[in-house]
Amino acid sequence: MPRRICQPSHGPDGRRRRGFSLMEVVVTTLIMGVMAGVAVPRIMYNLSDYRAESAANRIAADLRLAQKYARTTGSSETATFDVVNDRYSFSTIPDPKTKAQVYSVNVSESPYSAMISSVNMGGGTSVTFNGLGFPETSGTLSVTAGQSSWIIKLEAASGSLTVGEE
Predict the structure, then answer these.
(1) Are 113 and 83 within 8 A, CB to CB?
(2) CA quadruple 83, 128, 106, 112: dihedral positive or negative?
(3) Could you tell me which CATH number the domain at 30-165 has?
(4) What tens digit of pLDDT does each residue of 54-76 get?
(5) How many of the other CB atoms lie within 10 Å of CB of 97?
(6) First CA to last CA distance, the chain
(7) How far apart are CA 60 and CA 12, in angstroms?
(8) Residues 125-151 pLDDT 10s
(9) Within the chain, what is the greatest distance between any pair of CA atoms?
């Protein structure tokens, strides 16, 4: 009768032993370590890119809100950007949560964990939308998280907003 190459091992008491050898555990651990070493930097980059893109899209959506608010009320609305504290606020839009305060967003907090790296709204850090919803000046705003940067462009002539990678 031919002998099987892979026979189950038996302990001193004659019962079958189950488990992995030390070599199998070491090789598996090494393979998992190499895979993690390759995957972690990629995951971190994707996470920072997602945060920067999300923050830029939030700012663009809020600027569109300011345009609509100005158009609806027929009065001007100003968005002011604070680069030092990574926040922006509006002059008269009420906060949707409290209704008592003026609407303000801090992009350095969760879920964005991003920063406003630069603002150039016609040479200043604020933009005013007139009663028709058109901005008084064109401008750009840059949002950064980790190695990833996204830019928001505002056109004065058309009032259009575009968001894209820098």
Answers:
(1) no
(2) negative
(3) 3.55.40.10
(4) 999 999 999 999 999 999 999 99
(5) 8
(6) 72
(7) 72
(8) 999 999 999 999 999 999 999 889 999
(9) 96
Predicted TM-score of the model (pTM)? 0.77
Residue whose pair of structure tokens reads 């100003």 in the numeric block: 78
Hey, where are the domains in the chain? 30-165
Q: Say how far apart CA 140 and CA 152 lie, in whole Å.
A: 6
How many whole angstroms from its chain centre is CA 148? 9
**b/e map 126-163, b = 16+ CB within 10 Å:** bbbbbeebbbeebbebbbbbbebbbbbebeeeebebeb
| Measured distance CA(125)–CA(82) in Å, rounded | 7
